[in-house]
TrEMBL record:
This is Gonadotropin subunit beta-2. Residues 16-119 form the Glycoprotein hormone subunit beta domain. SUPFAM superfamilies: Cystine-knot cytokines (SSF57501). One of its GO terms (biological process) is ovulation. CDD domains: GHB_like. Belongs to the glycoprotein hormones subunit beta family.
Amino acid sequence: SLVPEHFPSPVAYQLPLCQLVNQTISLEKEGCFECHPVETTICSGHCFTKYPIMAIRFSKVYQHVCTYQDIYYKTFELPDCLPGVDPVITYPVALSCRCSRCNMDMSDCTFESLKPDFCMNDIPFYY
């Protein structure tokens, strides 16, 4: 017999599947005074995953996340940088996405992370 926990919840069917999404991100660099918003494509969406009902001793469970399949990097030159600071910064542009184990070198796989357009320069700093 089939156990209901093996099926995605009805809410899961309402979530968008893993796909390319246009997103504004903020570019910033230490030694440069302003954040600059740029438009890029990121991977976002839902991936179905299975979780065993009974834990099997010494087994590992990997949950899949929506992550990059193909990617390239664009460069941007930040204005208003201090002398001696390289103003060039690179940022990722997703070309395709897939559901896979999280690669922390390329993705933020935390449960709740900073928004892509978050800017450290926007946080008031008190001396």
